[in-house]
Amino acid sequence: MSSSSMRSFEYLESLPGTVFNRLYKQPSTALAIFRRMLPQLAKSFVMAMLYMTRPLPVTDLETWVCPGSRREQDTAIDLLERLQILKRTAEPNKPRSYVLTNPFAASLRQALTGGGNHKSFGVPSNKHVEDEVTISQLDEFARRQWEGVLGYMVGSTGIGLNDEGANLSPSVKHLLNYGRLVEVRGRSVDITQDGFAFVLQEVNAQVWTILVLYLENAEELGMDRVDVLSFLFMLGSLELGQGYSKANLTETQLQMLLDLGDFGIIYQDTPDSDSYYPTRLATTLTSDAGALRSATAGLHTALRSSNDEKGFVVIETNYRVYAYTSSPLQIAILSLFTRLSTRYPNMVSGKMTRESVRRAINMGITGDQIIDFLYTHAHVQMRKNPTVLPPTVVDQIRLWQIEGERMKSTVGFLFKDFLSAAEYEGPCQYAGDIGVLKWKNDAKRMFFVTRHEHVATYLKSQKERRREGG
What we know:
Blueprint: H1 3-13, H2 17-23, H3 27-37, H4 40-49, E1 56-57, H5 58-62, H6 70-82, E2 86-89, E3 97-100, H7 104-113, H8 135-154, H9 170-178, E4 182-185, E5 188-191, H10 193-200, H11 203-218, H12 225-235, E6 244-245, H13 251-262, E7 266-267, E8 275-278, H14 280-283, H15 295-302, E9 313-315, E10 320-323, H16 328-335, E11 339-344, E12 347-351, H17 354-362, H18 367-376, H19 391-402, E13 413-415, H20 421-433, E14 437-441, E15 446-449, H21 453-469
Antiparallel strand pairs: 1-3, 2-3, 4-5, 6-8, 7-8, 9-10, 10-12, 11-12, 13-15, 14-15
Helix pairs in contact: 1-11, 3-7, 3-12, 8-16, 18-19, 20-21
């Protein structure tokens, strides 16, 4: 599961059952969750059971999976149950069975076969062809607005980024501060550790991060979160360049058009116009089409920018930095941890110093994040070296970080008191396989994880399997 899917999944997992029941009444929502949030094995289970009229015994389901893939099976079933797509049925003297829930199954069938008058995939507008907005105009609008958001976060408004016309509303600035992506001190805005990690993400993951923050803040704004979620999932199914009517939207969704327009996700000629246009940031919400490694490279590629700035940084063993870029956003990011001294039309130069790196670390940016940024944007000539970045520079960045850092805390959960080594090894290995294991001690049969739900479900399924087998 991609990082963007994981963030949205964690939010969905926290919702009560009544919300899922309302959500799944929309075919566009059922299709979006099926496409975006389910691994291949879970999708196979759903499609195989979609037209079944009776519950499927677990013994039959297990015949679909190779004996060596039992852990993947448990993970897929656990995910489907937590998204309330699959539920267990129990009958006396019979093995447990599974059945797809309604209305999810009915909505997914309708989304796949068509029909109905649900209008959950948007209603195309009847706007005259001459008045329609072109795809290039939508891309330019999305690029300008999104770079304006990133520019505000890295403090680049003073070097001309927002001169291109990106207008950030107070609600956008509040949302970034609410999500701790920036920290506002009086009139100054400083990027946080989470904010810098956000800047380094793929664009699709960035958009989902913003949308989850928007969802968490929706109730404070008096919005119905089911309406908000339904509209977001619908956006991912719309066609780029096609205008859509606002006639069937709720009051909450009409307000969302204004808010999402600030981020470049939705375009409107005027707030009072009868139609709206999804930009590329919206139409890739439920697909991996716009998922690229870095934020800026992803934005430029997804929005068809003419400037290819994938690799532009050269760094020498004496900590001198040369960046072949004219992007104010890239220059502003570099200035967070580099003392820039010279600027040319297509290049800036400077030096990484102890003071410049420590300043970034004091803002919450980690040494590994700085190294990751330099590696991601290393010039093609740098990539001819086996290590890409000079080892002396990498080691020195880490040394500068640990000067003021001796301990790191991690929030999580400790599992202990296992009765046997066999009972301990299974869940410990499972936690490592799904990426939540942070520490273990085999001698004391203890391990520490960042999320406990997956491991608890695994232990429960193992307990049921032993009961059924013995």
